[in-house]
Amino acid sequence: MVRRQQSEDGTVKLVLRLHDRREIESVFIPDTPAQTFCVSTQVGCAMGCAFCLTGKMGLIRHLDAGEIAGQVRVLARELDMLGTSFNIVLMGMGEPLHNYDQTMKALRILTDAQGLALNPRRITLSTVGLVPMLDRLAAEPVMPNLAISLHATSEDQRASLVPSTRRSRCRTSSTPAAASRWPGAAALPLNTSSSTASTTPPTTPSARPGCWPASRPRST
Fold first, then answer.
1. Are 150 and 175 in contact (CB under 8 A)?
2. Tens digits of per-residue pLDDT, 102-117?
3. Radius of gyration over alpha carbons of the chain, in Å?
4. Which of 12, 16, 123, 151 is a plausible cystine mate for 28, CB 3.0–4.6 Å?
5. Total-model pTM
6. Are the CB atoms for 39 and 92 separated by under 8 Å?
7. CB–CB of 53/38 below 8 Å?
């Protein structure tokens, strides 16, 4: 850990240095209503979102699965929460679906009985909506919650905010269509007038919009 910052509301940001001296950020967000760890999946990001400082860095490199899962362990240790319930959101630096294989490997580590044995319902993956990867994700045995950031209601407006939509199929029309193929999504209409469309896997007791799972996680 290189640096630790804490805000008045209890949010804690850790700056972590990797083996190649690159740095990433991991964040603890209290009372959301659960305790939540926000972790990174890349050093930088290739999506280039106009409002995002990480996007201005460009993509430096992908994190490997150990570096993604390791952030959870570091946060739990530094915050003395190794025996405490918490949720995880993949909403830090980087686009999780752009680093698909390592992100999914990290989720398998975190949910494995020999890892942290977290329930997949306690993990939310946030994405700008890379359509081919959404289709692939829907078939995964480890099924996290899903939050899609649309940011706009029109193709032109979204293209100005999220330049990656110009060169890929992650559009305001195709992204909700892909999300509708997500298991259990039939019960949750996707509203493209909002900035984020969310859905949850079929094992979640109640599907509702939002970045955090609906219920508190079990202890690890």
1. yes
2. 999 999 999 999 999 9
3. 16
4. 12
5. 0.77
6. yes
7. no
